[in-house]
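Final report, results section. Input specification for complex C-07:
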Amino acid sequence: MQESTVISPVIEKATPLAVEMRGISKSWPGVIANDKVNLTVSKGEIHALVGENGAGKSTMMNILYGLIRPDSGDIFINGQKVTINGPRTAIHLGIGMVHQHFMLIPPLTVAENIVLGREPGGLGAAFDFKKAHADILALSQQYGLPIDPDLRIEKLPIGLQQRVEILKVLYRGAEILIMDEPTGVLTPQETDDLFAVLRGLVKQGKTVIFITHKLREVLELTDSITVLRRGKNAGELVTSKTNPAEIARLMVGREVLLRVEKQPANPGPIILHVEDVHAQSDRGLEVLHGVSLDVRAGEILGIAGVEGNGQSELVEVLTGMRKVTSGKITLTNVKDGVAGETRDVTTTGASDVRRAGLAHIPEDRRGSGLVLTDSIADNTILGRERWPQFSRNGIVLRLSDIASWAKRLVQEFDVRTPSIDVPVRALSGGNQQKVIIARELASEPLALVAAQPTRGVDIGAIEFIHRRLIEERDAGKAVLVVSAELDEIRSLSDRIAVMYEGRVVDIVGPDATEEQLGILMTGYSLEEKEEG
Amino acid sequence: MLLVQVLLRVLGSSDLWAATLQFGALLLLPALGGVISERSGVTNIAMEGMMLTGAFAAVMGAKATNSLLGGVLFAMIAGGLMALIHGIVSIHLRANQIVSGIGINIAALGLTNFLLFTLTNGQGYPSLPNALRLPNISWGPLANIPFFGPVLFQQNIVFYLAVLILLGMQFLLFHTNIGLRIRAVGEHPQAADTAGVNVFRVRYLCVIASGLLSGLAGAFFSQGISGVFNPNMTAGAGFIALAAMIFGKYIPWGAAAACLIFGLGEALSPRLQDSGISANLLSTLPYLLTLVALVGLVGRTTAPAADGIPYEPGTE
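Structure output:
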């Protein structure tokens, strides 16, 4: 065995180490997740573990939390060498983990979720509702995390669910908190709250390991950084002495354009016209109270807003997946900047809307964008399998034509995969998203509705996706982007519509400041706020 | 008209209601077994097979040990072993739990027939003497109360046991720390595991409990109610219990209520024979009732979220 030459520069740590993982390796057949990875975390710091999807961050943390056994390597907690056989050992060592997908049981109460596995009175006892209730209130006061212990998890908003996760970890006496991509599901306000909570915890002597791929969060919150790339250490940095470009370069392995480069828009006639649209939620409450907007050929209209203000329902209405109670939606055929025939698609179903020329990148790519267990090839013709170029008489598939089609798309859209026969579930988030985008753009639509197009996607792929969206715009298509990431909205859009409680509050130019957008997102108009 | 007359007469007799409670208890034990197994996240359609195995083992055990308790013990162990197989196949080997259940049901039928034939040289076991049969209990003066005496206070010992187990299981699942863990494992095993609950252990214990209860029901049937083992004597009772479990929304109380309804169907069918309706048609009554109940209500019951999904540690 030859010693690996790529070893991160060792930074002298002044305080004692809370966590030291040395030479951790873990592989599965065909995949090397971690290759002699080192991680050192000082006591009382917030340490960022960053890297693209598939860089091995989650594997490292699952090993530290005992969910996965490493093939080799040593772990030291507070200087003591330890073997972590399972979560029970990890909890005993004072390690707690808040998972990316919450480990909460929806039909149970906050109290039941928190005490589960460490119930008051021990295993043999009857469940002590009173004691559990009191313990949790005490804990929530101690750490300033107010919560009602008797509510069911399924009734809580995401931000509060995460608070329950943190309390769960603290209830188990954790000194070291692993936060696995905790902000992915949060609104900007919830993210700010979370950061305040984490800073508070560190003040009380806890140590936090913060997994993310969002550079802004790394710079805003953390003290030091470990960067992983393709299962190996790519660098170790002190947050105050680095910059986004350096972190991005270490993560991706090349220079990354963090800014979106684009020419000014050259908008043409209106393609997508939405007029006074009303629609109901699944529960029968009205969620869209008269939304009107236009998207022109050759422009990107961004929709900003705190999640849950009707954006998802708007996308569903536009793409024919949700019924409109009143209002009008039309699609106009625009060719070379000249408006042609206009079609009313207000009540058109999903399949016909697509045929009419509206492509859709859904917000939940795993749930509604892809059939995860099917191959890349199958997914690239999803919804178009009856087209003459893909099947004879709409019945018998032309498999070799589909294969060459899929190969072309994989190449053109830079989907990183060993073959087109791989089930899409085996791809990283970014590559899954590229499969969807390839499929949708290859149909040469008039208009494109992209909901959260880069959610859970790594930096390299984000750059690619942004470039493709702008290329669509420049090719004279109407592009509607819905995103919870303000940065994304601001850098992509030519105009920004802000939604609040089912209405478009205002439509502003791309030069609107983050603060102005923030005001609109809370439902105020800009004038009102100035006067008030 | 005749049917209405017969029905009115039958519905007023204590005999009908005593039989209803008896059948109800017979169905309740495997239904409770199903509840605890599925609450922990292991789909269990094998109560029929475990019950049949139990019924055979009870008679065989009672004869072999020449003791009443020996029979019950054999029955419960036999049911538990069948359940253990289902547990290993579905928990450790992560196989399809429906297929495993079907396999156990078919295997139980073949195994009991084979053993019955070879152990008795094709003669079958004769009826058990009274000393080896599970006795009825008469609650002194209470047993003499008109109507209620025969219905409530002259039942088989296993009936009273089943009522105790019902109360115990309701309390266990919803008022104890163990119950919290069982429900957590059935809803979201990853969450339970990361909270420090041993998912595999909980599931094994719950599946085995379903076997013990079904085995006991088997003993109740052969060693108690009929005193003899006949090939395939359970004749689908385990499946009716399965329906009762779903109908009862995976809650012990609910399952018990459903078992009473199905028990009534079982008790009614032989008693309506003077009504002029074909006996064959009447014997389908309990099964028909099951179907109606399921069609009408199954859409509205929700199984535990992780029911039937094997748990692989380290996955999401």
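Confidence is low (pLDDT under 50) at residues 1-10 of chain A. Chain A touches chain B through 35 residues (CB under 8 Å). This concludes the modelling results for the funded period.
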